[in-house]
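Tokens help. One example:
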Amino acid sequence: MLAKEAGILYASVAMATDYDCWRDTGEKVSVERVLQTFKENATKVTKIFKNAVPKVAARDWKLCIDELQVG
């Protein structure tokens, strides 16, 4: 709620690093595999940010921010 009241627009990005928590069989998690997956995810997230940030910066957000602060 604090972000809304302050008129702060935000989005979150999450990176899963292992998928064995729901499986009973198959390869178990290892530090090496988690780090490799994290590195791969970091590359993907970097590409997302490089693509998204210029698009976000190009928009006029004043109306959205004003509406959040009033609500």
Summary: Helices lie at 2-6, 31-58, 62-70. The chain has three helices and no strands. The mean pLDDT is 84. Residues 2-11+28-70 form one domain.
